[in-house]
Predict the structure.
Amino acid sequence: MNNFLKEFKERGYYYQCTNETELSDLLTKESTNAYIGFDSTAPSLHVGSLLQIMCLRLLQKYGHRPIVLLGGGTTRIGDPSGKEETRKILSEKQIESNINNIKRVFKIFLKTKNSKLKPIFVNNYKWLSKLNYINFLRDIGRHFTINKMLTFDSVKLRLEREQSLSYMEFNYMILQAYDFFELNKSNNCNLQIGGSDQWGNIVNGVELIKRESGNHVYGLTTPLITLASGAKMGKTEKGAVWLNKEMVSPYDYWQFWRNTDDRDVLKFLKMFTDLSLEEINNIKNKNINELKILLANNATEMLHGKKEADKSDYLANSTFKENSTGESLPETKVAKDVLSKNIIELISYVTKDISKSEIRRLIKSNAIKLDNKNIQDEKYIIDPSKFLDKGFVKLSIGKKKHFKIIN
């Protein structure tokens, strides 16, 4: 088996392939251009897209060149895959801004200096915006049957739930197939990689290219990642874990990985770090908390650099000591009118993901502390003089949540 595909499988990236034997031969014989598409629906990608980015890193490792398709055109339509409702349509200005921001993420994760390996960035608006509708239906639409399109999960699941699917969204799979056709023609792209929910769309592209040009191309999919808890990858109580430090700080990003469920740690070390599989195998029996810190450090270093990873590790280590002052915690500014309210209102202001009834329960169980001292009165109000000495108050909620409160 080709080395790229071998490691692709061993790291847990593999789900399906259109013709694995032929693809293995192609990847062994020559450097191949392969693409993954990312629609530009937000100002950043989040951790849910990280598996696809790691696939592009692995392509570069084995001498293949990634094509990053940023869907300026398809973002205007909306992919129904895995969606329960029609995507909100963004303005052209917002889409272009999102594309520019997302490009920066790839320039962090991928090698950009080697001219033979650096990513090729394409925007499908370039060709989709120029399509003549009549010609497109005649030349491309004739290869697609409604019968088959209705069997794809992206369509079938929406219809089974009796949720509306617009004609605009229904066309998405044809446009994605056309993207592959266009990239094969203009960029010699012979492989598309995507999540397992994209399988039908990818197969459409493979078949369209074969019918239109006779070329043999391939599709490769990754599993959809969910946490051992059943939650969706990249989502937390606070919302999405963005790959942008203006939206999620390096410290919060580190904490996301540090709080990985015990059952997911080894899997995520394989999927989301550059540690060799041999190294991971050698350390798999280490203390689980050591492995979580290793995961957090490696994942954070990859995105934010070693300095931020080390800083986050130090900050977490010093903060979680029983009697730490909280000096190095990120600051949380709280207005005086909030500080003048009781402890329940203060905590509700500082962290939105805990209900007031849960806060009351935490107070009763001695899990709320100010400057490492238990608060047992629901009506407690912080004395303003507490800020005079060091300028802040350390608020601890349980063992894992700590805040440096300033006014």
Residues 331-406 form a domain with the Structural Genomics Hypothetical 15.5 Kd Protein In mrcA-pckA Intergenic Region; Chain A fold (CATH 3.10.290.10).
